[in-house]
Amino acid sequence: MSKKWITAKLPEFVRDVLRDFCLASRELESGFRLLDRSGHVDFALLSHLLGQEMNKGLLWHLKDTAHVLFKHDDRPGARRLGQFLDWSVGYIFHDAMKLREDAYQQQTYAPWFRKMRHQDRNGRGSSIGDDLFGVLDQTNESIQREVNRIRFLLSICRRLFAEYLPLHADNELLARFLFAQNDLVREVFGADYQNLVGRIYGTRPQRMYVLAARSLRRGGWPDEATRALDRAEALAPGCPEAREERQSLAPGPR
Which end of the chain is more exposed for a tag (fewer CB within 10 A), N or C? Predict the structure, then answer.
């Protein structure tokens, strides 16, 4: 990939990193809540999120895209924040890889080992079996440590996004994503959502909807663009940017 091509694609990379972070966060937290309830990790979910070298999953794509974006974003202030985000996303990916392996051990070998240990409770090797059973306990402890660490790093990423994304407040694709997938972003950021949007758009929250409308209009989605402009004008009646965009949206003379 050439530097020129990457620079031209930066708005898309910014949108994609936030989108994939939100989607991966939702899936990971769903699996972690299952662990909280049942004590077991969803191995299939982790396998789907991670994928393989030749068939990368969502988390793998997130790691790769983040590395490209934060390596090439030269906006003032972006380099250090990007390095922190790149490192955090990479650590989440590698911890998820370890978690998947531990989940495989827990799902595949633990039931078999418990059955063998019960059948040979007083037989030869039973004392060794008792010692080996301690490995399963260590695996469960490792799983909990990895989950806690991933949850912590996800929270750090949410804080970092609130610092980094204001550098891209003029990004139409970012605004369009925040508008179109607002429920997803709110779910992932929770109590931090208002801070995120406030940091990006400051005292002009209507600008998110104007930029989203512009992107939607250019993409051939006039109805959605109109809906975004309605939201902008509800927040800031008489907003000149919204009025100008609505004029661009209106069909020209036949």
Answer: C
CA nearest to 188, candidates 18, 46, 34, 51? 18
CA distances from 40 to 43, 80, 95 (A): 9, 37, 17
180-219 pLDDT, tens digit each: 999 999 999 999 999 999 999 999 999 999 999 999 999 9
Domain that holds residue 27: 3-168
CB 206 within 8 A of CB 223: no
Residue 192 within any structural domain of the chain:
no
Work out how many domains the chain is built from and give that number.
1
